[in-house]
Amino acid sequence: xxxxxxxxxxxxxxxxxxxxxxxxxxxxxxxxxxxxxxxxxxxxxxxxxxxxxxxxxxxxxxxxxxxxxxxxxxxxxxxxxxxxxxxxxxxxxxxxxxxxxxxxxxxxxxxxxxxxxxxxxxxxxxxxxxxxxxxxxxxxxxxxxxxxxxxxxxxxxxxxxxxxxxxxxxxxxxxxxxxxxxxxxxxxxxxxxxxxxxxxxxxxxxxxxxxxxxxxxxxxxxxxxx
Length: 226
Fold this sequence. Notes:
By secondary structure, the chain is an all-alpha fold. The chain contains nine helices and two strands. α2 runs parallel beside α6. The longest helix has 31 residues, at 195-225.
């Protein structure tokens, strides 16, 4: 119970600060919308989008905007010098990681609530015909991407060039997650919907989530204390 309470306190703290400032949410949302619109003007010709473009652009927007949000995940603690206080507080270190991870996932979920209908509209993509599968792909893909990103954001919080290093480290590791998300979503957008293939990619995303979250929980405390 103490572990769950700590996770909720860390998440609640981030959400309350964000609800008051809306700094990360608005910046991330504006970037994601701009990304979708730019690609829409490039890949839509005479009212028709290129085949499979919607799935790729959706996940590109999620990855790019997610990187922007992850870059600010520990910024407030660094600026206000509260990171050291969090580390010496009598609480489990994995709970701190899970609290930050949950905050990032909820933030990206709020962004996806806007950009998924936007992609569906701009590219005439039937993303809601198999709503539960689409939701599963988005949820598991977002968790896998954020799990790695939160760990790297914590690792680079004291680095001067963290804004440059974060995407350099993040994208090579999360490529399997992004590919699985793109292929699973594309399987649902085909003329002949391949539900079995979408479920296969979804199961792979669940596997990636389990591996990434487990490794991050295992390495978070040594990374933050060194």
